[in-house]
Design a protein that fits this description.
Blueprint: H1 17-22, H2 24-30, H3 32-39, E1 42-46, H4 50-62, E2 66-70, H5 95-106, E3 111-115, H6 123-131, E4 135-139, H7 143-155, E5 160-166, E6 169-175, E7 178-184, E8 195-201, H8 205-208, H9 218-223, H10 226-242, H11 252-265, H12 278-287, H13 293-312, E9 321-325, E10 330-334
Parallel strand pairs: 1-2, 1-4, 2-3, 4-5
Antiparallel strand pairs: 5-6, 6-9, 7-8, 9-10
Helix pairs in contact: 2-3, 4-13, 10-11
Family: Belongs to the ubiquitin-activating E1 family.
Keywords: Nucleus, Ubl conjugation pathway
GO molecular function: SUMO activating enzyme activity
């Protein structure tokens, strides 16, 4: 583990002329103030798998101030297919130790710290760790773990992101508390274009999971692609009950029953989706534990983009549950548990 002072926040740093030259294109896109916010942000990322790899690449290149990566697991052969931070000779090494130098090489202006000690992600130490960050991102974790970290983030008023993939499916969830941002006033005449301040009040994951789909028409329901949404939620439920993800055809029946139960509980329009398509359930049941590099790239890229958008407070971030279907290349955002 790299040495780090997790309890103290330094005095805000000003962007130097050299940094302004490096980030010139972004400054012209976001503005100097937004880049300054990124420059002073500490981002805490849990688990270094495929989605996190792509997310880290993008936020480090964008010029955040500090990245802290927490992962106590070793590199496996399966990791090599979805993470460009690892090489064959890294198998058996700690993920964060194998990746640290390669992450640093992306942008020497960013401070990179790694934590492989599992005791530092438990109890009071976990609270201190989360409180030291400006934004927390958890990838490829189970539902209970996501809820736990989200609740701690709320305790310390820290924005929270979660993301992950299950074979061809992927998701992003965010809880940005009460988030203020600047966005174009689309109601204003073109000749009088201006920006206005907006606020979105977010909900924690445990609230989002109890969201009811009542009142939506058949068309409105279909536009949200609930089959993919509830496939992800069914995987979470299955994993919670069995302690593992499904990985072959023998699990199709239980996974399908779980998904249908969740559909019923959420009061999803039965005309739009009476059940999860059998072929989708079969695909999910056999591919869920596996990382598919292009899917990780899409989900991780979008996750990074949204984190930067939240930090910059420019334009509206995801509100609040995004799902991606790698078989069609389509993505959908659902408002779950929001006012």
């Amino acid at each position: 583990m790299a040495s780090t002072d997790l309890g103290n926040k330094s005095v805000p740093l000003e962007i130097t002329e050299d940094e302004a030259a490096v980030y010139d294109r972004q400054i012209r896109l976001w503005g100097l103030e937004a880049q300054q916010k990124m420059r002073n942000a500490t981002i805490l990322v849990f688990r270094l798998k495929g989605v996190a790899t792509e997310t880290i690449k993008n936020i480090v290149l964008a010029g955040i101030g500090k990245l802290v990566v927490v992962d106590h697991e070793d590199v496996t052969e399966e990791d090599l297919g979805a993470s460009f931070f690892f090489r064959d000779e890294d198998v058996g090494k700690k993920r964060v130790e194998a990746a640290k130098a390669r992450i640093e090489s992306l942008n020497p202006l960013v401070t990179v710290e790694t934590i492989s000690d599992p005791t530092l992600s438990e109890g009071d130490k976990l609270n201190i760790l989360i409180n030291s960050a400006d934004l927390v991102c958890v990838t490829d974790w189970n539902r209970e773990g996501l809820i736990k970290i989200n609740d701690i983030c709320r305790q310390f008023n820290k924005p929270f992101y979660a993301g992950g993939t299950y074979g061809l499916l992927g998701y992003i969830f965010c809880d940005l508390l009460e988030h203020q941002y600047i966005a174009p006033d689309r109601s204003a005449p073109k000749e009088a274009a201006k920006s206005i301040k907006n606020t979105t009040v977010y909900a924690p994951l445990k609230t989002a999971l109890s969201h009811k789909w009542s009142g939506l028409t058949r068309r409105q329901t279909k536009e949200l692609n609930p089959a993919v949404v509830f496939s992800v939620l069914a995987l979470w439920e299955y994993q919670s009950k069995n302690g593992r993800l499904p990985d072959d055809d023998s699990h199709v029946g239980e996974l399908e029953a779980t998904a249908v139960s969740l559909l019923t509980r959420a009061d999803v329009n039965k005309q739009a989706l009476p059940t999860i398509p059998r072929d989708l359930v079969e695909t999910v049941a056999t591919t869920a534990p596996h990382e598919i590099s292009p899917v990780c790239a899409v989900v991780g890229g979008m996750l990074a983009q949204d984190i930067l958008k939240a930090l910059a407070a420019r334009e509206s971030p995801i509100a609040n549950f995004f799902t991606f279907d790698g078989s069609t290349g389509g993505g959908t955002v659902c408002r779950m548990g929001l006012p």
